[in-house]
C-alpha cells in the first residue's frame, strides 16, 4: 500500500531561451508509466473543492499549468497537504491515495496525466469505503 510520502513533487525538465520556456513529459522517460488519458480542470469557482476519491490502480502526474491549488493527500493513516503553483513541478499521486483539491486561484489550470483510461470501477468515491479498503489491504500484508 502506498503512503502519502510516496507521492513526490518532481522537478520537470525546462528548456529556456529568449522566446520562453518548454517542459516535456514523455512516457517511461520522466513519467514512470504510459500516459493513457490527459485532462485538465479550469474555471473552478472560488471556494470550490474537487476530488474526494481514490483509485485502486490509476497513477497521476498533476501540474499547475497556470495559477495554484492545493491537494490534501490521505493514505488512511497520514494526511499531507501539497501546494502546486508552478508549471515546472509535478505531483506524482500513486494508487490507493485519497485526494481532495481546494484553494484554486483565479484562472488556474490543473493538468492531469493519467496511467489508465477512465474506468468507474477504479474509483473509490466513499471515504468510509476507502478506509475499509486501506485496512483490508494492510491486514493482507
Automatic annotation (TrEMBL):
CDD domains: cupin_QdtA-like (cd20292). SUPFAM superfamilies: RmlC-like cupins. Residues 6-134 form the Sugar 3,4-ketoisomerase QdtA cupin domain. Coiled coil: none annotated. This is FdtA/QdtA family cupin domain-containing protein. It comes from Sphingobacterium kitahiroshimense.
